[in-house]
Every structure is written in C-alpha cells, then in structure tokens.
C-alpha cells in the first residue's frame, strides 16, 4: 500500500475487501502491531500503534486462534486478566462478560476442559469471547467465523454487532453475505490504495 490516508471517526463495523494478495492481511497485521510500520503513523485516540496503550485498546481475532493446549478455558481467562494487567473491578467485569458469552455460544460446559480436547470451532469460540469480553475500542477480525456452525455464526454476529456500538470493528472476509449483513461501511484495497465502496 502507498500514500494511504485513512481515517475512521465513528464506532461501527467496517469491511476490508480485495483480491488475494491485495494486502488485506498485511493491513490487519499493521493495525494489530504484528508488523512494524516503516513509514507514516497509525493512531487510535492519540495512542500510537505498537505502544502498550494502543495494544490494550485493541483486539485481534485471526482465523486460527493461538491458545495453549494444556490450559483450560478458565485458565486462559486468567491468563488474559494477567496479560492485560486488569484491575480488580475490570477483572470482575471481564470475567462476567466471558461467562455470559460462553453461555450464549454453548461453551460453558467446555471451560473446565483442556484446550487440547477442543474442536477447531470450540477453540475459535473461546478465543473470540476472550477477546471481545475485553471491550476493545478497536477490534480486528481476519476471515471471521469460518470455523463455526451456522447457529454459532449467528450468535457471534449478534455479539459483534453489540460490541460495535462502542468500538470500531474492522473485518476482512471473502464471505459476501457476511460483509453485506454486518458492514456499515465497505472499503476495498485496489492497486495498493484503500477506496470506499459506495453502497
């Protein structure tokens, strides 16, 4: 990508579209701090990309979640609490969110089991609720919900729409139906530039 000046001012769900190799995943990795920005800047409410404050305000859900096989779902929740240095009140709210979303996604009965016993869909559910329960102000999703059955997809979409009332949600997907149903704004990467698609 080159000469990109992209500004998002309001909460809501935004889609990034483009052909394979156009740069969608690269953009997501730049926004998530996984790739270092060599030129220019990325800011979130005056927080610079890569800073601790930026990372704490951002959540990134990739298509293949990174989890620890020998930990249970509940233990992962504790790891997230420690990782993000949550204060007691913040931790209590976070845990309440996790349990609420786990119930909605029929995940509660698996939380005490080690992740190595999970199916791919169950792993995705766990990482999804662990991330959205933090209530980040920037939430990134790369090819979301591919591992979920239809019913779980619908519930995950409802949760995402609720989160988007107070967050900027950016998703990259080839699922046309998903994009059309969820997105308030749609952008395409075309010849290394980001262009808005008028709906």
Overview of this protein structure:
This protein has 199 residues and is of the alpha/beta class. It has one domain (12-63, 71-197): 3-Layer(aba) Sandwich (Rossmann fold). Helices cover 38% and strands 18% of the residues. The chain contains seven helices and eight strands; from the N terminus they run βαββαβαααβαβαββ. It has helices at 24-31, 52-56, 73-83, 88-104, 120-132, 150-163, 176-182, and strands at residues 12-17, 43-44, 47-48, 58-61, 138-142, 168-172, 185-190, 193-197. It has a six-stranded mixed sheet with strand order 4-5-6-1-7-8, sandwiched between helices. The chain has a two-stranded antiparallel sheet with strand order 2-3. The two termini are 24 Å apart.
SSE map:
Blueprint: E1 12-17, H1 24-31, E2 43-44, E3 47-48, H2 52-56, E4 58-61, H3 73-83, H4 88-104, H5 120-132, E5 138-142, H6 150-163, E6 168-172, H7 176-182, E7 185-190, E8 193-197
Parallel strand pairs: 1-6, 1-7, 4-5, 5-6
Antiparallel strand pairs: 2-3, 7-8
Helix pairs in contact: 4-5
